[in-house]
Structures are given as C-alpha cells and as structure tokens.
Amino acid sequence: MPFFPFKPATSHRNTPAFPQDALDTVFEHILLDDVPHPDTPLPDDVLPICDAAEIRNGYNLCWQLLERGVDRKAFRRLILKIALSGNANKDEQLAFKYARAKFKHMRFACANFTKQHRYPLLLHVVTIVMGNMQDAFKNHQRRATLMNGLILWVVLSPAYYWLISTPLTLWKEDDVAGVIAYQKKENAKLAKLIRTLNATTGHEFHTMRKIISRRVAFNDTLRTIRPSQALNQLSEYLATINGMMGDFHDGLIEKKLDGSQDYHRDRFQSPQGIPQRIRAFLARSPR
Asked: What local confidence, expressed as pLDDT, does residue 268 receive?
C-alpha cells in the first residue's frame, strides 16, 4: 500500500459541488479556445471584472474539472500503452488531448485566480511533459515517446500525485483588485512582446501565445459561471488569436524537431493578422 506523508483536505474545493453540466460546459469552452471566429468583433469590455464569489467559484470549478474529469487510472494505462507501442490511434490521441487540456486549464486557473498568480512547479512540469509526449508520438519519435511516457506514468501514480495536487487545494484565491492587477500586468507584457513580432523567435512567440491562452481560459471559466453574450464574444475574439498563433506555432515545432530552424535563436516575421488583432485588444484594454 502506498505511503502518503500528507493528504490534503479537499472538502472546501468541493463546495459548491458543480453539476456535471457545468463541468461539461467549461470543457466545451476549452475545446473551442483556439477555434477561429474571424467575423466576431472585439467587444467593448475586454477586461471584465468578477466579484470575490466568482473568483472562488471559478477556481473551484477548474479544480473539480480536473479531479472529477480525469480518470487517472485509465489515463495512466493509456500513457503506458502509447509509451510502449510508440503509437496512438485517433481515439487514443483524442483521449490524451482531453486529459492534458484539463491539466492545462487547472494550471491556467492557478495563474488567473490565486494570490500567487503563477503555475505550481510540479503541475507545470508534468503538463510540459504531457506536451512533449504529445509532440513526440504525433511526430513518430519513438524514444521521446517512451521516455516522456514513463515519466508521466510514474508521477501520476497515487504515490506521487499528491505532490502535484497539494498546492492546488491549499493555494488561496486572490481578491478582485489582485486579479485585475494581474491581468493589467499581463497586458503590459503583451504590449512589450508585440514589438518583437517583426523579428521574433519561436520561444518569444510562444511566450506571447501563453498570455493569450491564459486570458481565454479565464474568460471561458467566467462565462461558465456568469453566462453572457459579451463574454462569449470576447472568448471568440481571443480564441481567434489563440488559434492563429497555435497553427503557426505547430509549424515552428516541426521545424524545431527536424532541425531546420533554431527555436530560441532564429528570427522570423509573424503573420500580419496576429499583431493587428492583439494591438486592437490592447488599445481597448484599460491601463
């Protein structure tokens, strides 16, 4: 029987207990967070304010999506199967993608809603390893698939998973002013990075995309708790940027893996539609 040196209390994260349809709704939003809606205009309110209850409920919703939405035993079996075989069929790729999406959304929730406004280290690392494994089996890299898969299979076991889950239950949500201050700080980073898009690197481009992804995740969580057409419109606008950047970044990863482009050093020009949309978003954001 595994030895657990610490078992965190999770009852406060289960309150309120969100119904399954709320978990399904936020996950549907997550699956659409990079689907372009090129005709959706930028709404007037691009920095929606949420109250303390919405911040608390938003974080707990993300936590419940991970804890109730990922069958870790089944996910570990899938990981091991892909790791040992080096292949994943379409259904297995989709199952892996869905589980990883819930881990990613929880990671975003820690940055968006908690006082720390950052990713817990181990959750961040395990999500990166999931991404590395996904890139590896998609690109038929047998050795990388095996190595990343074995790491995941171990760290997601009951004997180790508590190290990942403990910060998620103990970190406290920020107040309204803190959440807004964090988003304005993110906007400032975005404004600084956008100046490099005429000659950017893969790493810089990805850093910018992560800011957009976090904001989409925040808005998707908020519109699950507080449905509105304005929030839907904002999510669609941000998802368009996220999707454009994601498609372009996929090509950068392929060039990185085949050695045709250095991800950290080689510079290139971003597609023009991306900076135009980001500049419009920043111009409407309060400072």
From this structure: 86
Alpha-carbon gap, residue 116 to 148, rounded angstroms: 28
- How confident is the model over 222-254, as pLDDT tens digits? 999 999 999 999 999 999 999 999 888 888 878
Rounded to the nearest 10°, the torsion over CA 123, 184, 38, 33 is 20
What single-letter DSSP state applies at residue 48? Answer: -
| Helix-, strand-, coil-residue percentages of the chain, each rounded to 5 | 70, 0, 30
Over the range 49-84, which residues count as b (16 or more CB within 10 Å of their CB) and which as e?
A: ebeeebbbbbbbbbbbbbbebbeeeebbebbeebbe
State both tokens at 116: 């720390």
- Structure tokens given for 33: 């967070």
First-to-final CA distance of the chain: 54
Structure tokens at 163: 């190290």
Angle at 29 between CA 171 and CA 184, to 5 degrees: 55
* Residues 252-283 pLDDT 10s: 878 887 889 889 888 888 888 899 999 999 99
Asked if 111 and 117 touch (Cβ cutoff 8 Å), the reply is yes
Q: Which amino acid is at 153?
A: W
C-alpha span between 273 and 281 (Å, rounded): 13
Q: Are residues 24 and 69 in contact, defined by beta-carbon separation less than 8 angstroms? A: no
Reported pTM: 0.91
Q: Domain spans of the chain?
A: 52-170, 176-284
Spatial distance between the Cα atoms of 105 and 70, rounded to a whole number of angstroms: 12
